[in-house]
User: What shape does this take?
Amino acid sequence: MLSPELGHYALALACVLAAVQGIIPLIGASRRDVRLMALAPGLAIGQMIALGVSFLSLVYAAVTDDFSVQNIAENSAVSKPLLYKITGVWGNHEGSILLWALILGLCGAAVAAFGRNLPSALRARVIAVLGLVATGFELFCLTTSDPFARVWPAPMDGQGMNPLLQDPGLAFHPPILYTGYVGFAVPFAFAIAALIEGRVDAAWGRWVRPWAVAAWCFLTCGIAMGSWWSYYVLGWGGYWFWDPVENASLIPWLTGTALIHSAIVVEKREALKIWTVLLAIGTFSFSLSGTFLVRSGILNSVHAFANDPARGVFILGLLGVVIGGSLALFAYRAPTLTAGGLFAPVSREGALVLNNILLCSLCAVVLTGTMYPPFMSLLFDRTISVGKPFFDATTIPLALPLFIFMGFGPMLPWKRAQLWPVLQKLWLAAIVAAVACAVAVFTLSGVLPILCAAAALWIIAASLTDIAERTRLFRTSFATSIQRARMLPRAIVGTAIAHAGVGITVLGLAAMSQAQHKIVEVPIGTTEQLAGYEWTLKAVEDEPGPNYTAMVATLEVRRHGRLITVMHPSKRSFNSQNQTTTDVAIHTNLLADLYGVLGDRHGSDTSPTYVLRLHYNPLAPWMWLGALIMAFGGALSLSDRRMRVGAPQRARPSPATTSVS
Assistant: This one.
């Protein structure tokens, strides 16, 4: 029978297994002891099973309203719907850390299950590094963030969950986002294993890239879901506020994107080895740093749900060990890594290098803007804020050249290329971008939105051109082109789709800069004009909910007298938490969103007035549609048979490499 005691015992057992997993296989790999190395997969799977039992025990306590568990008493209630009792397990600090540990355990078990084609020593080291990282997080759970701590006497009912978190989007957002965060632990483990061995080659690049792509896909979806939640739950009409916690997820996404492209060069040309290893370390380090910044209380935002300096000190120590140790190992071993293949500046390798420089520059800008306010507060006791104007002014000029090079980078040959022949193939894409720029001049205001719209169409058109060139579309029979398309490697198609997804997202961002909105206070029956639509407040009624009471408005939207939609924005009051939230009403035709928010009631009972926030958001859905297309492109590339089988055989190590292993 599942119980908090069983969950706590299983967590302690998982910690012991993780510690053994982190030590024994490393000893076996250093001694070339096959028996010790063979223990690694079983230990990883055992740790995962123990963590699964622990997590299910916490879920069972939440579902059965066991308020003797402090975590459940503080974050649940009898009246809370069943879905949110389950998803609320990871909607708090203790549960989220346990979920993090569980996903890390799943990553170790996945390497154990799907890494059979790896050399036994490399596999043992990768699993061991994952075990050492897991030990730190499980100790964190057991010492400062125990999800099974008891409270006595047990209350009859719990305090309930933050109403903002009682939403399907945010319920599933943390597991997806954490899978992206934690997934980069696998490339990190590969990097540390390669540094211990002193060897990075094409086979290593092939093995690392699928794990990096999988983590990147999850992180992309997680960030998109968080942005979508901000859009339709917070009721501010925006989608990304450059919130410090949002930036904490964007930073590893940028370096993770660079890691994927750098790993391609290692696989194809055995170049950029040092850079790839450093990006693998940096990406996971940024994931851990984001965890520290949020849970230490240094970064406070609407997303933050824990503020405990003691926990921050523990994570800071863990960061020091993981990041400091890995960078020290990198500094010691990096000189032993051979440089690899040479290439001309104008080549696909050169384009990928420029891509990585721009991505890392963007990362540096976002990191600076995020950390500057807390450092100013710490060092000079000055409270400042760095917001949208700074980030827009600093990131867009770096992003625009990145978008331009995304267009022709995939079409450049490896090692050495001529730029003019590639540009000749992209003449139609250039015309599309030029026409888009001309149209944007008359439809958009502001230089940066115009340039972004042109760049977005350039990326989409160039991605389509890449596929058209590979299939010889319009230069041979249509049947032949279809046959060539079927023979294309999925990784190539997935890359084109992912790049097109970037273009779609950028186009949505450019259009959203032209959004229109107004805030009005009106009585029932009033009609307001916005973006050529007539918005009429028809009624406002009180309705009961499962654990709240709601004030629901009926808002008719017409255009030239024709009814477009009837919207029902509402305002919910949760009695147990004494909080109020908004329930936004959105009507979309995929080209624009009509967005309505109900505010406070004013006036007397006989003649009340209501605050309405009305928005017209052009191409808003394209931002999240583009993100999903990006993730789909990554997933499609993962399905490429070359990713799953046929990994290259490792070349025999040179005497210089052998001497440092």
Notes: DSSP finds 22 helices and ten strands in the chain. The beta strands are 516-523, 527-530, 533-544, 549-559, 562-567, 570-574, 579-583, 585-588, 592-603, 608-618. The CA atoms of residues 192 and 285 lie 12 Å apart.
